[in-house]
Amino acid sequence: MIQVELELQTIFESKITPTQVEEISFLFNTAGKAYLPAADSLIKSFSISGHADQAQYGQDIICAAVTTLAATCITSLDDLAEIATLQYRLASGDIMCELPPLSELSAKQLLLSQVLLRSFCLGLEQIEWSEQAKAGNYIQVITVNSNRKR
């Protein structure tokens, strides 16, 4: 099974500027609600582990879809949002992506990063709801609040 973990950080704890809060609030008010974190949270990172084992290696469309979404999100955060200090890893069965401290991002970078990460979440939702994924227990998406004690 593929396990996707989204790490959230509340706007209050992210120490972003009032301008950034205003722009992000606009985003939250216009975004859909499915699979997305609460309106007071930002997506800080994601990690993906495991394999779907839906089919043989090279023919597993669920693994391929999740990997494609993750790689596209990482590349978009780097190229489109221009986040040079993005930390990431792309390996078979082990993908992770972590934004720098949110307070270090410009308002534009923060807004773009959240649009891209939320689009990634919507793509994961579509995979999870697909007929292929419904046929077995191939993918699980969970959210973790980074403020919670582990």
From TrEMBL:
List GO molecular-function terms, semicolon-separated.
peptidase activity
What GO biological process term is on the record, naming one?
Answer: proteolysis
- What Gene3D superfamilies is this protein classified in? Cysteine protease Prp
Work out whether the entry's keyword set contains DNA repair. no
Q: Which UniProt keywords apply?
A: Hydrolase, Protease, Ribosome biogenesis, Thiol protease
Asked if the record carries the keyword Protease, the reply is yes
Q: Which family does it belong to?
A: Belongs to the Prp family.
Q: What name has this protein been given in UniProt?
A: Ribosomal processing cysteine protease Prp
